[in-house]
Every structure is written in C-alpha cells, then in structure tokens.
Amino acid sequence: MKKLISFLCLILCTLIWGTTFIAQDTGMDNIGPYTFNSARFFIGFFAVLPFVLLFEKKKIFIQIKNNEIQFLKLIIPVGIFLFLGCIFQQVSLLYTDVANSAFFTIFYVPMVPIIVYFLFSEKLHWSIWPSVFACVVGGYFLSDFNDSSVQFGDTLVIIGALFWALHIIYIGKIIEKFDLPFFIALLQNLVVAVFSLILVILFEEINFYKIKLETLEILYAGILSGGAAFALQIFGQKNITAAPAAIVMSLEGVVAAIAAWIILSQVLDFGNIIGCTLILFGVLFSQLTPIYQIKVKNI
Fold first, then answer.
1. Could you give the CA distance from residue 91 to residue 160 in angstroms, rounded to a whole number?
2. Rounded to whole angstroms, how far apart are CA atoms 52 and 85?
3. I need a surface site. Which of 9, 82, 129, 249 has the fewest CB within 10 A?
4. By the 8 A CB rule, do 251 and 281 touch?
5. End-to-end CA distance of the chain
6. Cβ-based neighbours of 120, under 8 Å, separated by 6 or more
7. Residue 91 binned pLDDT confidence (cut-offs 50, 70, 90)
8. What mean pLDDT do residues 269-278 have?
9. How far apart are CA 98 and CA 260, in angstroms?
C-alpha cells in the first residue's frame, strides 16, 4: 500500500511539474518573465513555510548550530543555480514552445554525472555517452533551424539545463549534510524571489494591476509546483526504488507537451515527436542502465 501511495505521489508530482510549463507560458501575457518568477517564488516561499514549521522547526537550530559557515557555503550556490536555471527557462518561453522548453530542460539528467566527473572526479558510467548522443540528435529534430527565434529560445533552455544540473548536484550535497529538505526549499525559494525582484527593478516594472491579471498562473506555479510538488516528491521517493521514480519524473516533458497541445494548441510535427522520443530515451537510458547492471550483479 505504501509503494502504491508513493507511486501515485510521484505521478501527481510529475503532472504538476509538466502542467506548470503552461502556467509559466500563459503567465507572461501581461507581465515580464522576471516579474512572474519573483511573484511565483515568493508564493512558493509561503507555500513551503507551513511544512517547515510542522516538520523541521526543532531540527533547524540543532543541525545548523556550529555548522553555519558550511550551510551558507552550500545554500548560496543552491539558490543561485536554481535562480539561473529558472530565469533561463522562463525567458526561453518567450521564444520557443512549451514542449521544446520542457524536453530541453531534462537535458540536465545526463549533464549531472558529466559535471560531477569534471568537478569531483567521480567515475562516469558508460551509458552517459549514448545518452548524450541520443539527446543531441533528439535536440536536432526538436528544434526549428529555420526559425532563429526558436533556436535562441532553445539555446536559453539548454544553458538553463546546465544550471539545473548544478542545482541538483548541490542539493544532493546539502541534503547529505543537513536533513532539512523543507527549510532548504524555503530558503532557495526566497533567494530566487529576491534575485528575480532585483531584475524586475532593473528591467521591468512593478505593476500590481498586471500582476493581478496573472493570479491563477502565479498561484499554480507557486503553490502547486513550489510547495505541493516538492512535498509529493519527498513522500514519493521514500517508499519507491530509483528506477520507477526516474521513469515517472522523466515524463515531465511528455506531460508538458500533451498539456501544450490540449490547452495552447501547440502541435508537434513528426520530426518534433522523434526528437522528444530520442531525448526521453536518452534520459531514461542514462538513469536506468546503471541501476539494471547493479541488480544483475547482485543476482
């Protein structure tokens, strides 16, 4: 029963993350990407706050006491990398389709072990290279080389994927040392919100009337994606193995593409579908092959 509940939590989490791309896209009808991001992550901050007060209030002081410097050294890059990943992804939606943004974002999956190899000299599994090849070929089919605007948007997403990968790496490091997932989520939401607000002041305008017009999109992205989905991911991965978890969460791009087709009438042609399929295959291959080989060795 616990495994079934965990599996359902991961499915719901993936559905939220996939459909959040729609909210991100339509949420810029009246406001700029920096305003949307700032508002979304301020809402996300308040969405996660109750979880911190309920589950981690007593643990925070105990775990961080005498380790403040180490905590700061990790939480700062976590927040900055999340901020950069989100900004590049959000701005990309001004130029490219939801499906492109979603599928190019999951490039971060094969990027993670490559970055870890270069930064920390950890061994690379052989499956990474065919995975990267599949993703690159898939990207060729998915992008539109006849439209410079789409190409620019896709490039922004890929740059953003690099920062998503770095964010995943440093999240792993901070969670390893500090068992405070909700508090970490709270702080990273605050960092992204504040940094985005600085960009709003520099390049956009604070117009509460226009922000109000995007209330539903901001609340959806902030409360569901920034708060509920994070909690669902934690509960989902407690009682389910890595392989099915990787499969379910990698379907975020598929959900986004289907949602964009239904809600925004963004239809993929045959070449785009081939591209999406190759990227999804590459991502799953890099995740599942090492797990499968370990299981075979243990039999």
1. 10
2. 24
3. 129
4. no
5. 26
6. none
7. very high
8. 91
9. 6
